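Entry for iron/sulfur cluster complex. Fields follow.
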Amino acid sequence: MSKKTKIIQKREECIGCGSCTIVCQKFWKMNEKDMKADLIGGKINDSGEYELEIKNISAEDLDCNKQAADVCPVKIIKII
Ligand code: SF4
C-alpha cells in the first residue's frame, strides 16, 4: 500500500526570509519575481494554498521538508 504525504504552503503569507530554501533546496526555491518561496512542483489548491503530494516519500525528503517547516518563522509550511 502506498502512503501519501502532502507538503502545504500558505504562500501568500511568505515573508521571503529564504530559510526553507537553505535547509531544503530540493523542494524550495526563491521566486525572484515576488521574493517569496516556491514549493517546487506545488499546485494551488481550493484553499489558495500550494500543495505537493508525494507517494512514499523518502525519509530524507520528509526530513528535509520537516526542517523547512521548523525554520519557517511564520509557520506556513505544513506536512500532513
Ligand atoms: S521559511 Fe517560510 S517565510 Fe521563509 S521563505 Fe520559506 S516559506 Fe517563506
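NOTE: The pocket of iron/sulfur cluster is lined by residues 9, 14-20, 37, 71-74, 76-77 (CB under 6 Å).
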